[in-house]
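Sequence dictates fold. Below is an illustrative record:

_____
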Amino acid sequence: MEDVLDIRVLVGVEITHVPPQKIGPLALLARKLGAEIVVAHGETPVEPVRPGTNRAALDAIVDILSHPGFITLEEADLARENNVCLEITSRSGHNITNGHVARIAKQARAKMVVDTDTHAPGDLIDSARAQQIAVGAGLTEDEAAAIVKHHAILG
C-alpha cells in the first residue's frame, strides 16, 4: 500500500457516539480483535457526544483521544498519566478548539498528535501541513516539528 499512497496502514478503530460506559469494553474488544490503534471520538463541540466521553476514553487508555473539545486540565493530566495522545486536528469544525487543546495539553505535559479525521482522500495531509496546523494551534515551530516527527506514524 505504501507504494500507492505513501502512507503506512494500521489496523485500528475509532470508537464514536457510544455511551461512555461502553468505551472501555469496546476498546478491549478492539485490541483483542487485532486493533493496533484505538481512537476515541472526543467531546468536540461540532459533533457532540455524551458528556463524560473524554474521561471514559482516558480511563479506557485508548491511544488517541480525537478532537477532545474543551478538555479539562484534570482530563489532560489523566491523558499524560495513561499515555494517551490528545489530537490537534486538521478537520474543519473540530479544529475550532485546537488552541485550547494545545494550551491545556502543554500545561499538563500530555502528548499531542496532529491528525486528520480523514473522511475522504482529499482530507489527507503531509508533514508540512501537519506542522502548520500545530503552529496554528499555538505551538512553537520546534514543538510542532517534534510532535509531527515523533507521531508521524499516528498522524
